[in-house]
Specification:
201 residues, 29% helix, Rossmann fold, 6-stranded parallel β-sheet, alpha/beta, binds zinc ion, 2 domains
């Protein structure tokens, strides 16, 4: 069984995953939560919910197969940060585990995370959450907007409300046209719009 929870930053993905893990924990199941090592923010700093289970940090899920063997339910946070996550969770799900994956589905330039997209297709249950747009207040913010001043060179730059905010698609697109955006960010943004025919010009 595979549950995939996606959405932009500040949409409550981790909170929703923890709520689900908590339910299993209360039913006496062995529950574990895995977070990527690259995320050095304080543990679950962005969630107020307590987690009553085991917690692990790792870089490579394949190296953890033995450790994970005795857990019934495996929660994976920040799934976009793990390489080759889709085959791993598909296999674990087929082996009888319940995987709950929480992940960003897109970069702040609007580029889909390939492995997360794959996981979404194979999911038994797919939950897409939205945040509240920090610009217009829309309930349907689907995008993470990078507002940091440091040039963003890769898909992944770990940060919180100091460098990211949630925006609806329209406000995100307006923001991406800002001349302060770096050349790389603009190129990725324009290519994504072209590829996905999302332009609303
Ligand atoms: Zn908006």
């Amino acid at each position: 069984m595979m549950t995939v929870i996606v959405g932009p930053m500040f949409s409550g993905k981790t909170t929703e995953m923890l709520r689900r893990l908590e339910r299993y924990s209360l039913a006496g199941k062995d529950v574990v939560l895995i977070r990527p090592k690259v995320d050095t923010r304080p543990y679950l700093a962005h969630s107020k919910m307590e987690f009553d289970g085991d917690r692990l940090c790792c870089k490579d899920l394949n190296q953890m197969l033995d450790i994970l063997d005795h857990y019934h339910v495996i929660g994976i946070d920040e799934g976009q940060m793990f390489p080759a996550i889709a085959p791993y969770i598909t296999e674990a799900s087929l082996a009888g585990k319940h995987i709950i994956l929480s992940a960003l589905n897109m970069t702040s330039e609007g580029k889909p995370f390939e492995q997360v997209s794959m996981a979404m297709h194979y999911a038994d249950e797919l939950i897409k959450l939205t945040a509240v747009c920090t610009v217009c207040g829309s309930e349907y913010a689907t995008m993470s907007y990078y507002k940091g001043t440091q040039a963003k060179t890769g898909d992944l730059l770990v940060g919180g409300p100091d460098v990211y905010e949630a925006r609806c698609f329209r406000c995100w697109q307006e923001g991406m046209k800002n001349p302060k955006k770096t050349k790389d960010e603009k190129i990725i943004f324009e290519e994504t719009l072209k590829e996905t025919a999302l332009s609303v010009e």
